Amino acid sequence: MEVVNCTNPQTKKRKKNPLPEGQFYYELGTCSKNNDLAGALALYETAVSQSLRLNHNHYNILIYLCSSSLPDLSSPEAGDAVENPAIDKGFSIYNQMLEKGINPTEATITAVSRLAAAKGDSDFAFELVKTMGKYNAVPRLRTCDPALFAFCHKMEAEKAYSVEDHMVSLGINLEESELSALLKVSVETGNQEKVYSYLHKLRNCVRCTSVKTSDIIESWFSSKLGSEVGCLNWDENRIKSIMLKNGGGFHGQGWLGKGKWVVSRSTVSSKGCCCNCGQRLDCVDIDRVETEKFAEMIASLAMKREAKSNFSDFQAWLDRNSNYVAIVDGANVALHQQNFADGGFSISQLEAVVKELYETSQRKWPLIILHNKRYRSLTANPSNRKILDWWRAQGALYTTPNGSNDDWYWLYAAVKLKCSLVTNDEMRDHIFEFLGSSFFLKWKERHQVHYTFVKSNLRLKMPPSYSLVIQESEKGSWHIPVEGEFADETSRKWLCVTR
Q1: PROP1-like PPR domain spans which residues (predicted)?
Q2: What is the pLDDT, as a whole number, of residue 309?
Q3: Per-residue pLDDT tens for 419-441?
Q4: Hey, what domains does the chain have and what are their CATH numbers?
């Protein structure tokens, strides 16, 4: 077979003797990988002297290297004006970029904002972010951080709040480092309303606070102002009602009580009781608004994908039959550890789960969701038919129609009725991807019941007795979980804060 040489002589020649622009870009990339600012600036000076044409990638690399030589934004040094030749050089390159008519990108603005913050000009850093629209660049969290951290560091609280407002208006979600900085400036400037607000924002952002954040929280509760704020009289029934509506774990109605706070390091027992003050922590659920939104989302998706099965019929049936405290994913339970090759389906396993739920819920029947195709195959066996017919007579069985995916049915029922769901399905399949994770994971933690069969003996693993999240009690006390490596959750350190 003849071998054809496809190598282009011109290409080979170009590789041996690259054009100056190509050689510059290659060497600049090497400097970027090695974080070699001095080498990159030397290359830049050579490029300028040779009148090479630079594009936005070249400028971005150069400005980024200048900004990356500065202190970390969230470090104690951030926000102080520093003397660093890289700052002036970075601005010089940025101005050269603008003079050449090259529009900055989000990466450019982020790097220049860092330079401005390091120079002490946090106002300019924020102005850059606010005017990005004229370059058709969209800010990200990292783009806003320089101005936010700089304002917080300089105790310019109102300006820091303005940055946060701008971020929220753009749909940018703040993370713990940003909220921690805002919390600190609020503590140190004595803005008790903002402190309260950021504690709740942290609650929605993280499960456990970092040690750094927990220290800031402790400093507030140990302060003179912290002991002075609050009220002595409140409607306990109203607070309890609001907490129930919120899903437990917080009321959000402001500081309750007055007087000196006592901050202790504590642990929480397996039953959810604080080992210091004895308060029982909540297993936090999604609130009522989120629950309704979640149920509507599931129904909407199900009807798009279950058009042939008339999912709306199930919704109407569930409205008429809503007195359930548990939903059972019938196929998941009955097929657990069975031989799929033989079509194994253990009705006895399903029966054991149903019986256990019935006995432990003051003799209330759970709702078993089973696909009609599976139901019909099972009823060919007289003993199975007898059990299934008995469940149906008690209103404990709903069979989903042919062509349906029963996952939508048991999930919708559990969410709509706000009850437990018995399944080992971790709900990671493609159909659940549409639901997002904003409150799906919180809902799962509160409602999913796992199970095992050990030597044919059923063991139900109920949801945890409490949630690992900042909690505010109806009496005004607080419990804050702190990050760390522990042998088990009962060893985790919590801040227990009581009056």
Answers
A1: 12-224
A2: 65
A3: 999 999 988 776 677 666 667 88
A4: 9-173 (1.25.40.10), 224-286+468-498 (no CATH), 304-404+414-461 (3.40.50.11980)
